[in-house]
Write a structure and sequence with these properties.
The complex is a heterodimer of chains A (about 220) and B (about 500).
Chain A (H helix, E strand, L loop, with lengths): L3 E5 L2 E5 L5 H7 L23 E4 L6 E2 L9 E4 L3 H17 L6 H9 L26 E3 L9 H6 L9 E4 L6 E4 L15 H5 L5 E3 H10 L1
Chain B lengths: L6 H12 L4 H11 L3 H10 L8 E7 L1 H4 L3 H15 L2 E6 L10 E5 L2 E8 L1 H6 L7 E3 L30 H8 L11 H9 L7 E6 L8 H8 L1 H15 L3 E6 L4 H16 L7 E6 L9 H8 L23 E5 H13 L1 H7 L1 E8 L5 E6 L2 E2 H8 L4 E6 L5 E4 L7 E2 L15 E6 L4 H15 L5 H18 L5 H14 L3 H5 L2 H9 L1 H4 L1
Parallel strand pairs in B: 1-2, 6-7, 6-9, 7-8, 10-16
Antiparallel strand pairs in B: 1-3, 3-4, 4-5, 10-11, 12-15, 13-14, 13-16
The chains are: A alpha+beta (about 220), B alpha/beta (about 500).
């Protein structure tokens, strides 16, 4: 295969045509935060944390959803990108229960995020009660920030079951099931793909949830 | 149309039968549309009319009214609603800024619109009286000038003239008049260049941005001209199907666009072109071109990642020209009058509202100085103009009196005529109140897809509320504005901070 030249943070690297900027930049050692992107489910472009600067483009582009081009000059770090990522991380952490999200915790630290400076949460996310409607896993949507990997895993990304659905707009947008049914009546085949791809700990295997409860 | 019947019209049919949707209706509609029920459920949960239940009284929230007696009217409305035992609230811009204040009486999926209403009318609601004049149709007389777009076109352009359209539109210098001002000739050429047996032309009639009502006027009072432009464009790019997407709330526009379509079809005007009128979902985000396509396809109106652009992969993955109502009307005029005489005059519609004696739709030559536009509409003691709409900026007046209202001059200072709204505020008005309406609008209309916009627009609104209460946080405002503008996926979030930022930067006396 003919590799193409791409410059990442001043470093010349050779990339496979068709690769994403995220992939190429990560291979070149750039640490780019992402909350939504997942290779297997095809999820991309929602969280906007992986925005990078590309020479000649008027605004930052999501690295996960941008294909490398020959001669592309990519910058993954700048004061502006840091500010932008910090703001998004802060708002996510303010509105969502991210206590159990290890990756999120490290980014909050790396970006010196201070969610409290935005005041109180404005959405009802943190107030959501856990949903226990099946023998396999609990859905704790207070921890969900709408990365949509579970939706893609259930629908067109992997399984083609379409048990999960999405509802609402703005900050109240949320994952639900078809007709808000209990999972056991939703057509869910309990394949476990959604639990596997969930980055936040919102979808918890029942056993773990029970153990955590005991520990409390 | 590729494959199946479309979901939204199926849901609307069920809604007509029952006045609300049951899961069984959605399941049936999904089956007919060939979509998973989970997707149809998402869609039904996204658009407001599929969830409407019971009676609600809604005051139309827009910047002009907010700068006046919005609070007084709203509290009277709430009082009357408590007395009558119904719900009260607000709804965003109905394109009635020129005849407001406007009030919507919602009964399930049906809405009656009254404008103007006053305090007395609102108080009378409680005893079952009509609160004002029914305003389903925008008065024709709101066109305050004549002109190429506002007078009846008489004879429509011949479709055989479509061969030269792209070159003519290009040399006429036409831009996209939905607000983005992208060169129309280039957009046409991009769709024309695609090799595909199936291409679409989609007319974007989702005008929902506070302060803008010129597309509504065209759809209600000159729809033949728009259809003619769409037919020419379809011929020029090689499309065989035109879908006219009309904002869901604009029921009169919907009826008139459809009546014009039926008449033109019966007369043979469309030749072998397929045409249909489509009732939109009823949200501002539906006007974002890729979100609009999603909504025709029966999905939540969420913007797509670009590339690919609709010109390459649009409706059902086919090359699609999505073009604004007014833009297409201009294409018909360019064909009728020739590119040279068009260029010489360069008409543009402006929606002028607020503190002017004659609010309405004006056809003015592009480049008209701001002061002249305001004088034509009868403005006096003007202090500020919110130009473009909610996705616009506040300009100081008279400092900007000589600003030419054209495509490029305002851009030098980061402004734009956008779709052509001029909301005028005199020195007695509270500009912060107008700005509060703008941020409330975005915090209501964000689709919920990308994180910066879905989380940032409510916090932007919150910062405005706090600022008004004396707790200014300029650094947070600046950072959130940057995050929205640079980080949001589409133009909605990107433009959300513009109005507030311009107010803070340019009106030191209110920014304190």
């Amino acid at each position: 295969m003919n590799l193409i030249p791409v410059v990442v943070n001043g470093l010349l690297v050779w990339a496979e045509p068709g690769a994403t900027v995220l992939n190429v930049a990560q291979k070149a050692g750039a640490g780019i935060p992402t909350l939504c992107h997942h290779e297997r489910t095809g999820t991309k472009g929602h969280c906007r944390l992986c925005l990078v600067e590309i020479a000649g483009r008027p605004r930052p582009e999501p690295a996960c959803a941008t294909t490398v081009e020959s001669g592309m000059v990519v910058n993954t770090e700048s004061e502006e990108l840091t500010d932008l990522r910090r703001t998004v991380l802060e708002l996510v952490a303010l509105e969502t229960n991210v206590e159990h999200d290890v990756k999120m915790a490290s980014w909050l630290e790396e970006y010196r995020a201070d969610p409290g400076r935005w005041g109180d949460p404005l959405s009802g996310r943190r107030e959501r009660e856990p949903i226990r409607d099946n023998a396999f896993f609990v859905r704790e949507y207070d921890k969900c920030y709408n990365c949509r990997r579970c939706l893609d895993a259930c629908g067109e990304g992997i399984q083609g079951v379409w048990a999960l659905s999405f509802t609402g707009r703005v900050a109240e947008a949320a994952v639900t099931t078809v007709f808000d049914l209990p999972l056991t009546e939703s057509g869910c085949v309990f394949c476990g793909n959604c639990v596997q791809v969930c980055p936040t700990g919102a979808l918890v295997p029942l056993e773990e949830a029970l153990l955590a409860e005991e520990a409390r | 149309m590729d494959q199946h019947p479309l979901l939204l019209p199926l849901l609307d049919k069920a809604l007509e039968r029952r006045k609300h949707l049951e899961p069984a209706d959605i399941e049936d509609a999904a089956r007919s549309a060939g979509l998973p029920a989970a997707l149809a459920w998402e869609t039904a949960n996204f658009y407001p009319r599929y969830q409407a239940r019971g009676v609600r009284w809604l005051l139309v929230d827009e910047p002009v009214l907010r700068s006046r007696n919005f609070d007084e009217l709203l509290s009277a409305l709430k009082e009357a609603a408590v007395a009558a035992g119904v719900a009260a609230g607000t709804v965003y811009s109905y394109g009635l800024e020129a005849v407001g204040p406007a009030l919507v009486v919602e009964d399930g999926p049906e809405r009656r619109v009254y404008a103007p209403v006053d305090l007395e009318g609102i108080r009378k609601l409680a005893d079952g009286s009509e609160p004002g004049t029914l305003a389903e149709l925008m008065p024709r007389g709101l066109a305050r000038t004549g002109g190429w777009l506002l007078d009846s076109p008489g004879k429509l352009p011949d479709l055989s003239g479509a061969g030269g359209l792209i070159a003519d539109v290009d040399s006429a210098g036409l831009r996209g008049l939905g607000g983005a001002l992208f060169p129309s000739g280039r957009k046409l050429a991009a769709v024309q260049a695609q090799e595909s047996d199936v291409k679409y032309v989609v007319v974007n009639g989702d005008e929902s941005e506070p302060g803008n009502f010129k597309d509504r006027w065209l759809m209600e009072h000159n729809p033949r001209l728009v259809w003619a432009g769409a037919a020419l464009a379809a011929r020029a790019v090689g499309a065989k199907e035109i879908i006219f997407y009309v904002r869901g709330e604009y029921t009169a526009a919907l009826a008139r666009v459809e009546a014009a379509r039926a008449e033109l079809e019966a007369s043979g005007y469309f030749e072998d072109l397929h045409t249909r009128t489509f009732r939109g979902g009823g949200l501002y985000i539906c006007g974002e071109e890729s979100a609009l396509l999603e909504s025709i396809e029966g999905r939540r109106a969420e913007p797509r990642l670009k590339p690919p652009y609709p010109a390459e992969a649009g409706l059902f993955g086919r090359p699609t020209l999505v073009s604004n109502v007014e833009t297409l009307a201009h294409m018909a005029l360019i064909s009728l009058r020739g590119a040279d005489s068009y260029r010489e005059y360069s008409p543009k519609l402006f929606s002028i509202s607020g503190d002017v004696r004659r609010p309405g739709v004006y056809e003015l030559p592009l480049g008209t100085p701001l002061q002249e536009a305001l004088e034509t509409a009868g403005a006096s003691d003007t202090r500020a103009v919110l130009m473009g709409g909610a996705a616009g900026t506040f300009l100081r007046f008279p400092e900007n009196a000589s600003l030419p209202l054209d495509y490029d001059a305002p851009r030098a200072l980061g402004d734009s005529i956008g779709p052509g709204a001029l909301m005028v505020f005199d020195s007695s008005r509270d500009l912060w109140a107008a700005a509060e309406s703008v941020t409330a609008f975005f915090a209501h209309e964000s689709c919920g897809r990308c994180f910066p916009c879905s989380l940032g627009t409510p916090h932007l609104h919150q910062l405005v509320l706090r600022w008004r209460q004396g707790e200014a946080q300029p650094e947070l405002m600046r950072q959130l504005g940057e995050t929205l503008e640079k980080g949001s996926l589409c133009g909605l979030g990107q433009a959300a901070p513009w109005a507030v930022r311009s107010l803070i930067d340019r009106f030191e006396e209110v920014a304190r």
